[in-house]
Amino acid sequence: TNVTVGAPPEEDFAPTEACRTYPSPPCPSNGVAHLLLYRLHTGSEPLELDNRDLGDALGAPSIVCNWPTTGQSYVTSFAVTANASWGQYGRCHYNGTNYCDASTGDQVGRQSPQGLPGVPRQGQCSENADRGAWYSFPAGGKCRPGEAVGSRGCTWSARPLRTVKASCVEGWKFRAACQEEMGHTLYQAKSAAIIQRALASSNPLAGGCPDVRPQPERLEEVIV
């Protein structure tokens, strides 16, 4: 093996395409989108979207299928109005406060679930009809109550529609649908349909789940 001693070539330190274009510019659209989105959460979480991630019907299974649920796990549907000039998707976390690790200013972030390849910019501006989409909501873009999207530059508003227990969703053979579809197809139609029916009505004959009021998780003190 030939060994060369000396300074490495400068191209080794050249920024990648992702770094050169970070954050990704907004999509070229001035329209307003009306979305029906879903979020898995605990009872301790307020029904707000500030610095949080959600998925549409096809995007939600890739989250709900992968996360364990407890007796205090819930799924809530939200009606969202947003500026459709989507920004880079931000992965949002909680460390005492909610925050997102990437964003394009105050634009709502968007990408295909898990950043699946096959579409430009991980689905930020693509239709994503075959795979669904994830969305991130920067707190700075939230419209005030009663404001239309675009007022003062605000980019989104949302209201919760229904909340059901995650265990009820699972009772409709959701996990079996996950096992059948996860890793085998981009189009998780069966799992998505179960979530849609569960949140569409409380009628069990239509696959619906009853409305519930989220209850905070109870923390038990253990003395050793």
Give your account of this protein's structure:
The structure is a single chain. The strands form three sheets. The chain has a four-stranded mixed beta sheet with strand order 2-8-7-4, with no helix packed on it. A three-stranded antiparallel beta sheet has the order 1-3-9. α4 (174-181) runs antiparallel to α5. The model has no long low-confidence stretch (mean pLDDT 89). The chain has helices at 17-20, 61-64, 166-170, 174-181, 189-200, and strands at residues 32-42, 52-55, 73-83, 87-88, 92-94, 98-100, 109-111, 134-137, 156-165. The longest helix is centred in the last third of the chain and has 12 residues, at 189-200. β5 and β6 (98-100) form a beta hairpin. The chain contains five helices and nine strands; from the N terminus they run αββαβββββββααα. With 224 residues, the protein is α+β, with helices and mostly antiparallel strands. The chain has a domain at 25-166. Helices cover 15% and strands 23% of the residues.
Key structural traits:
224 residues, alpha+beta, 3-stranded antiparallel beta sheet, 5 helices, 9 strands, globular
Give the gist of this structure:
The chain has 224 residues and is α+β, with helices and mostly antiparallel strands.
Spell out the blueprint of helices and strands:
Blueprint: H1 17-20, E1 32-42, E2 52-55, H2 61-64, E3 73-83, E4 87-88, E5 92-94, E6 98-100, E7 109-111, E8 134-137, E9 156-165, H3 166-170, H4 174-181, H5 189-200
Q: Total number of β-strand segments?
A: 9
Residues in β-strands, percent: 15-25%
Order of helices and strands: HEEHEEEEEEEHHH
Query: Given the C-alpha coordinates, what overall shape results?
Result: globular
- Extract low-pLDDT stretches: none
Q: Tell me the helix content.
A: 10-25%
Structural class by secondary-structure content: alpha+beta
Determine the mean pLDDT. Answer: 89
Give the strand order of the largest sheet, numbering strands 1, 2, ... along the chain: 2-8-7-4
Q: Please give the largest β-sheet.
A: 4 strands, mixed
- Determine the N-to-C terminus distance: 60 Å
Instruction: Tell me the number of helical segments per DSSP (H or I, 4 or more residues long).
Output: 5
- Radius of gyration computed on alpha carbons: 20 Å
